[in-house]
Amino acid sequence: MARGAEPAGERRRCGSVVAYFTSAKFLLYLGHALSTWGDRMWHFAVSVFLVELYGNSLLLTAVYGLVVAGSVLLLGAIIGDWVDKNSRLKVAQTSLVVQNASVILCGIILMIVFLFKTQLLTLYHGWLLTMCYILVITIANIANLASTATAITIQRDWIVVVAGEDRSKLADMNATIRRIDQLTNILAPMAVGQIMTFGSPMIGCGFISGWNLMSMCVEYLLLWKVYQKTPTLALKSAKVEESELKQLNVKKESDMKPAEGVQLIVEKDETGFEPQQEKEVSCAARIAEPFITFRDGWVAYYNQPVFLAGMGLAFLYMTVLGFDCITTGYAYTQGLSGSVLSLLMGASAVTGIMGTVAFTWLRRKCGLVRTGLISGVAQFACLVLCAISVFMPGSPLDLTVSPFADISARLFESEPLPTIASPEDKPEMVFATGMPNLLNGSTTPANSDPEMSPEPVPLISVSLLFAGVIAARVGLWSFDLTVTQLLQENVVESERGIINGVQNSMNYLLDLLHFIMVILAPNPEAFGLLVLISVSFVAMGHIMYFRFAQKSLGKQLFVCCTPDPKAVSDSSPPGNTSTV
């Protein structure tokens, strides 16, 4: 009996493993991992390519960043509306093909520019080369917009349908998606950076183009498999009853019958009246349609019950307390080497993954809304260390130095602007860390003298700064997952695209403001002031979320209890009762 039971148990285990690796959930993870890996490689490499092409100047990189942020800010609602009005498979496949085809085309153009840059400079007084730069930035921006559409449809819609009515499964899937993001954020730039360091930028372009071509085919197949395994993805309501606002998902296709007030997008083409109506639409109405969509999207976002929670998340983007080029550039002025910074970035990825684990545990113990409160308190408590670091030994804070002194000096000086780094320093600056120094023209501390050995800068201030930034990632990513699931659970299915598109626009708007803030005060002496402003914006974001939680839970806000796993989560909009 025992010997016969062992093979049966092994067969069941093998069957469970095979069932998991062929499930829609795993296929969705695999497709997201491939997509994110390609995205991270491209986003890292395109900035490096633009710096390399434009004589070690950040001008093209800055223009590219501004174009990307401005495009998502203006077109986020329109992209979301397009996601809502079309079938899920069509949206996912179209955005996938446009994104990868744009990256492949950009890679080919960049390879041509790297090969024939000298000849292009002599043609038409260099205007042909300038047109190549404009073309690369334009196509790269299209790729980013398509990536935004992919993220909205997969991470905000498909994942909800695949999870079904199980909110715990939805929370676990959201957390796994974020863990994949954290790992690819570190590993993908390292991989492509090594290829460009030991090969050449042209080889890097070819590798990224080849990767995206292969990845596009595999992802296309995976999307089709997920679509086949989840029949409810074929059903997408264009109008949902107000009473259905709280439903996490529609029923399965076998149980679904179009009710009164529900219209399926798959039925849209079968109606004989719509094409005739489209012919009667005037040209002015067609021109005005994107502006109306933009307005309606922002109005709908404002009227959402989770509006304050979404705004709270957006305010966290107005910060210099992250591992971007701004904070990395400041770290260089304080004497930190590229190897130390790479270790710190790795530590931040680990704490980010810890945040995803904390989210799933806290949600089970305290409910979804309270998880956001606890995560916000944890993040702000860690960022207090950053505020303290401003006043510790080693901090270059000097309020007597005008924040505009550096700008005015550079505007009126007759000598050319200093380059980012000398050719000897470039591999260490760009490829080892992936973050060029925006604050100074060298990797040495700001107070160093080339003819004298630089005085050592006390590391107490910068150590506290990065300790706070790294520790805060636990609360940050847990809070991010909380707001993400609140948007998934509380937004009408027919408005998921446009609401999440506006949310992306808000995130980009605050991110753009943080870059403007750095442009206005670029010198290291003012960085401490930027830290204090950043902490203030994080505090305001969490105050907004606290107000949302207060409206949602009322007097039960501070009641600590363990929700029933089978009960609905405590993310009801204000005015509705919920099980907590």
UniProtKB/TrEMBL annotation:
InterPro entries: Ferroportin-1, MFS_trans_sf. It comes from the Eukaryota. It is a multi-pass membrane protein. It is found in: Basolateral cell membrane; Membrane. GO terms for cellular component: basolateral plasma membrane. GO terms for molecular function: iron ion transmembrane transporter activity; metal ion binding; peptide hormone binding. The chain crosses the membrane at residues 17-38, 58-83, 95-116, 122-146, 306-332, 338-361, 373-392, 457-476, 497-520, 526-546. Keywords: Cell membrane, Ion transport, Iron, Membrane, Metal-binding, Transmembrane, Transmembrane helix, Transport. Belongs to the ferroportin (FP) (TC 2.A.100) family. SLC40A subfamily. May be involved in iron transport and iron homeostasis. This is Solute carrier family 40 member.
